[in-house]
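Narrative of activities, Objective 1.

The group set out to show that a structural description can be obtained from nothing but a protein's sequence at a throughput compatible with the screening campaign. Below is one input-output pair from the validation batch, recorded exactly as produced.
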Amino acid sequence: MNIETPRKELDLPSAIAEGDIRVLLMVLVHMTGDTSWLEPPYKPRRDVRLIPDPEAGVPKDIQDKIRTAVLKLFANGEPEPAITDPGDELMLKMMRACLGENVAPEYAPLMREEMGFVPREARWAERLPHDALTKQHVLIVGAGVCAIGLGVALGRLGIPYTIVEKNDELGGTWYVNRYPGCGVDTPNHSYSFSFGARNQWTRYFAQREELLDYLKKVALEHDVRSHIRFSTKLTSSQWDETNRRWISTLQTGNGTENFESAVLVSAIGQLNDPSPAHFKGEQDFAGTRLHSALWSDDIRVDGKHVAVIGTGATAMQLVPSISDRVASVAIYQRSAQWSRPVAGYSDPITEGAQWLLAHLPFYVQWYRFNMFWRYGDGLLPFLRKDPNWPYPERAVNKGNDRHREELTDFIHSELRERPDLIEKCVPTYPPYGKRILLDNGWFRTLTKPNVELVTDRIEHFAREGIVTSDGKLRPADIIVVSTGFKVTEMAARLNITGRSGKRLADVWAGDNPTAYLGLTVPDFPNFFCMLGPNSGPAHGGSVIFQSECQSRYITACLVDMIERGIAAIDVRQDVHDRYVREVDAEHEQMIWTHPGMTTYYRNKQGRVFSAMPWRFVDYWAMTHDPDLSVYRQTRA
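Output recorded for this entry:
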């Protein structure tokens, strides 16, 4: 493997001394072809932490032997690797050794693709002439993660596309959300694309600015940016059955225009339209009131009294980031949240580790694998209901109950100086029943003298602040409403009309969006909704992984259609309905249907419409190679 980035002047032994032993072992197998590195005494010990101990439980003398072997390999330059693609059998053996656990065989082909050992993108059986592709224009709405990934895939195939973005910059949620502390709660080396130049992350969980810069780099590297029309909003789109085209109306700075495309893709995802809660007397409040997603750079919190309504992921990032700057912060909590401690959450990646990730062959791939796995399917078995478990009010199975005990102990240890907060902070529902949050000093922040956790109901807003049900007025200069997004709308808010005048908003009425594979809807030909219903990752994982699976599916559909002369496809109703029944049946066995809680994964009727019930490896397999027989097909 050739290293494109020139080597920095760095002390090689020092860099290798900082390397993760389990990853260095995989480097040795690739470079030497010697699989004895996968056997005792070198085998790492299992470590389930998100950021594991780099020594991997290996004795010090064995660690020294491993590091010395790596150093000797690269002391005089970079040799040719003995193994580039391990193949499924060896890949499985390497994964099992790396993790110290019995990885299932179906993960081998997935991870070979995810790590770049084999190509992921769809391919032509034979290259088509350019004029055969020009008629297949794809219109993508939104310029966030999904659109960038799909744009790269379409560009590689030579299929023309245009992205329309209502904002003046790309990045989606990472452009819009600007509140202090905004960042990712998935490890960067998993929350990044499987393709392209590796980004030199500065920390394990990046902040918003670094993530936005990364997305801009990817868009430039793969020429996606030139396909984006900024400050352009889709106001409606209608399927023309006669010409088998989508006719879209775009609002631009110069007025409105019509845009024709063979394919329409919603890439706006699920968490894009703020859902501001409203309160009695809010018009009387004299200060600044805003939804957290509408935070602007000119807001100054220093020395101010701040109120934060909500205790979800945003609040858990925001409050610790401002608590030392404000006069006071009052947090209004409706329900407590489980928060998972992560050692190293805010730590910078050391210079030696940065060097290994940038320069040592195969190191970044196996490091990415470790992050992917630790925040992936390993948790899912603990989220399945055990019908024989005697304590369903507190957990869904024995393992989930153990997680509850561990997380409760963590809360007690963090609040040991403030026992009055413990009852307010320990949730009553099972761990992972709602989106699991990562602790970045949240509980310690609650103990600060200028921070108050309020669990009394908000009665009304007054001119000077917020009055709760006990009659107490707490002063506020700024009120931040952190109450989430209109998740149920998804693509329905784009005013899309399919075959025979059928409106997507009507099909998805009652807060109940459904789609085959989370992507396609009956009577909406050549329409795909990325991160659509029941395709959101809930047990871990990465939105970027989901977007790559869906990009592969969409482009593979288009390749198949173009090569076979098919002008339009829309999923059969019976296929769609069967899939939705399978999703619902699976969710009945999962934690997100637990009755003792509310979550944005469920609609008002209690149906889980947002979260995906499948393992990531299952969804990858489902979306890898489309079967067009499940679609109604219209010939060109």
